[in-house]
Write a structure and sequence with these properties.
The structure holds two protein chains of two kinds.
Chain A: E1 4-6, E2 12-13, E3 49-51
Antiparallel strand pairs in A: 1-2, 1-3
Chain B: E1 4-7, E2 10-12, E3 15-17, E4 22-23, E5 27-28, E6 33-35, E7 38-41, E8 46-49, H1 57-66, E9 74-76, H2 82-85, H3 88-94, E10 99-103, H4 104-114, E11 121-124, E12 129-131, E13 136-141, E14 151-155, E15 160-164, H5 181-196, H6 200-211, E16 217-220, H7 229-240, E17 245-252, H8 258-272, E18 276-281, H9 287-294, E19 297-307, E20 310-311, H10 313-325, E21 331-338, H11 344-351, E22 358-359, E23 363-366, H12 371-390
Parallel strand pairs in B: 8-9, 9-10, 10-11, 15-16, 17-18, 17-19, 19-21, 21-22, 21-23
Antiparallel strand pairs in B: 1-2, 2-7, 3-6, 4-5, 7-8, 12-13, 13-14, 14-15, 19-20
Helix pairs in contact in B: 5-7, 5-9, 6-7, 8-12, 9-10
The chains are: A mainly beta, B alpha/beta.
C-alpha cells in the first residue's frame, strides 16, 4: 500500500497506521480514506497529497 | 499618521512602515510596507479587523485615539502572522471586554504564538456571521492563502472584503485607495510571487469564491485598498491561471566568464527567435526579481557555475527559492561549466523536485564553452522555440 505525503506541510499518510484519531482505521488504503478527511497536521484536503 | 476613511463607518487605522527593508529576514521590501487594521463602527458594536506589526504600536495607538475609538467589542483575527496579530495582546489590555473572533485553527495558533488564553475567544465556522447592530460581518475561511488558518472577513451591508494578505502588496503609502495602478501592479505581483505563488491551486479556488461575491471594495492587510476590485482580482486570475508567457527566465552565476558566455549566446539565439528573456545575474539581483519573473515564464534556464564539485551557493539558493515558490513553469534546463569535475547539475535537479516542468537539453561545458557546447545551446534554443510554439505562445 502506498504512502501519501501532504505537499503543504510534509505529513505522511501511512496506510499501515491510518489516522485513528480522525476515524481512519489502521490498514485503510489511501483510496478508501474519506474524501472529506483532512491532513491532521495542517488541515489540507486529500487533493493536496501526492504519492510518496 | 492620519486615519484613512474607506466609508462613513469603516476606517483604515493601520500603520505605515516607510523604512522596513526585509520581511521574514528574507524578503526584500524595496517600497517598505504598511500594516492595515480596519475599524468598523456599528450601531451597537464596534469591530477591529486585524492589528499591526508590534514595532509600530505607538503609531497604531495614536491612530486609535485620533479616531476617538472608545469601545471595541470584537477583534477579528484573519491571520496569525505577527505583523497582523502581534498587537492583539495590547488591544486586549486597552479594551478588556473585547473578544477575539476567529476560526478554530487561528485560535489554536494565537494561543500558541501569543499566549492568549482561551476565554478571550469567540470561535466561528465558515460563512458564520456576527452582528454589529446595523452591520454584519461574515467570515469566509480561506485556508492556504497563505497559512492553514487564513480567512477573509466580509462586511455584508457595505460589500467590503477584508482579505488580509491575499490581494495585498508591500507598499508604504498613505493613499487609501490605489491610484497609481502601474506601481501597485508591480508591488502586488511581487507580493503574489513571494507569498501566494506556492499555494497557486488554493489561490485559484479562493479567487473563484470572491468572484461570485458582490464586492465594492477590497481591503487587504498590506498596501492600498482597491475601489476597483476587478483590477486586482483580474491580475490574480492572470498570475494564478494556467497560462504562461513567451518568456525565458535565466538566473545565473558566472565565476570566470564561461557561464556568462553560454547564457549570452542563448539570449542571442532566443532573441532571434522572438522569445523574451529575463537574464538575472543572481550575485546582483535578489529574490524579488527572481520571484516576479518566475510567475509567468514558460521556461527557466539555470546558469550554474561549479564551485568545489557542487553548484555555486548562490545558484543553490536560487534553486531552493524557485523550488519553494512552485511556479507554473512548463520547461526547465541547466547550462553550466566546471573546471575538473562537477556534480552541480545532479544537485540542482535534486533541489528542483517540486517543479512539474519538463527538463530540456542540458549543456555542461568543461572550462570555456567550445563549438560542441554552442551547438548544444543551439539545440536547447530550438527546443525552447518548439515547445513555446507547441503550447501556443509563440
Amino acid at each position: 500500500m502506498d504512502k501519501y505525503v501532504c505537499t503543504l506541510c510534509g505529513y505522511v499518510y501511512d496506510p499501515v497506521n491510518g489516522d485513528p484519531d480522525n476515524g481512519v482505521t489502521p490498514g485503510t488504503p489511501w483510496e478508501e480514506v474519506p474524501e472529506d478527511w483532512v491532513c491532521p497536521l495542517c488541515g489540507a484536503g486529500k487533493d493536496d497529497f501526492e504519492k510518496e | 499618521m492620519a486615519v484613512r476613511k474607506i466609508t462613513e463607518t469603516v476606517f483604515n487605522i493601520g500603520t505605515i512602515d516607510w523604512d522596513r527593508q526585509t520581511f521574514d529576514e528574507l524578503i526584500p521590501l524595496p517600497d517598505g510596507t504598511s500594516y492595515n487594521s480596519y475599524f468598523v463602527r456599528g450601531s451597537e458594536k464596534n469591530a477591529l479587523i486585524d492589528g499591526v506589526d508590534p514595532d509600530t504600536i505607538e503609531e497604531y495607538i495614536s491612530n486609535l485615539k485620533s479616531l476617538n475609538v472608545d469601545k471595541v467589542d470584537y477583534i477579528i483575527s484573519n491571520h496569525t502572522e505577527q505583523d497582523h496579530s502581534g498587537t492583539i495582546v495590547n488591544l486586549l489590555k486597552l479594551f478588556p471586554d473585547a473578544k477575539v473572533v476567529t476560526n478554530k485553527k487561528c485560535k489554536e495558533f494565537l494561543m500558541e504564538h501569543l499566549l492568549i488564553e482561551e476565554d478571550f475567544f469567540i470561535t466561528i465556522e465558515d460563512n458564520e456571521t456576527i452582528s454589529l447592530g446595523d452591520k454584519t460581518l461574515q467570515f469566509i475561511l480561506a485556508p492556504w492563502v497563505h497559512w492553514p488558518e487564513t480567512m477573509f472577513t466580509y462586511l455584508v451591508e457595505e460589500k467590503i472584503v477584508f482579505s488580509c494578505d491575499f490581494l495585498g502588496s508591500h507598499l508604504a503609502t498613505n493613499e487609501t485607495f490605489s491610484s497609481d495602478d502601474a506601481k501597485v501592479y508591480d508591488a502586488a505581483k511581487r507580493y503574489y510571487a513571494e507569498i501566494m505563488m506556492p499555494f497557486r491551486p488554493h489561490v485559484k479556488k479562493h479567487l473563484l469564491k470572491l468572484k461570485e461575491m458582490e464586492i465594492d471594495f477590497v481591503c487587504p492587510s498590506h498596501g492600498p485598498s482597491f475601489s476597483n476590485p476587478s483590477f486586482i482580482l483580474n491580475a490574480y486570475e492572470d498570475w494564478s491561471g494556467d497560462n504562461v508567457k513567451n518568456k525565458v527566465l535565466i538566473p545565473y552565476v558566472s565565476m570566470h566568464g564561461s557561464v556568462k558566455a553560454m547564457v549570452n549566446y542563448l539570449v542571442d539565439r532566443l532573441t532571434q527567435k522572438g522569445i523574451r528573456v529575463e537574464l538575472l545575474n543572481m550575485t546582483k539581483k535578489g529574490l524579488g526579481e527572481l520571484a516576479i519573473d518566475a510567475v509567468d515564464s514558460a521556461t527557466i534556464v539555470f546558469g550554474v557555475s561549479t564551485m568545489l564539485i557542487g553548484p555555486h551557493p548562490t545558484m543553490l539558493y536560487t534553486g531552493t527559492i524557485i523550488n519553494a515558490l512552485k511556479p507554473k513553469t512548463r520547461f526547465v534546463s541547466l547550462v553550466g561549466s566546471y573546471g575538473w569535475g562537477s556534480k552541480a547539475f545532479e544537485t540542482m535537479e535534486g533541489i528542483l523536485n517540486n517543479l512539474k516542468s519538463q527538463m530540456l537539453t542540458k549543456v555542461l561545458a568543461k572550462g570555456y564553452p567550445k563549438e560542441e557546447d554552442f551547438e548544444k545551446l543551439d539545440v536547447l534554443a530550438d527546443e525552447i522555440e518548439a515547445r513555446h510554439i507547441e503550447i501556443g505562445i509563440l
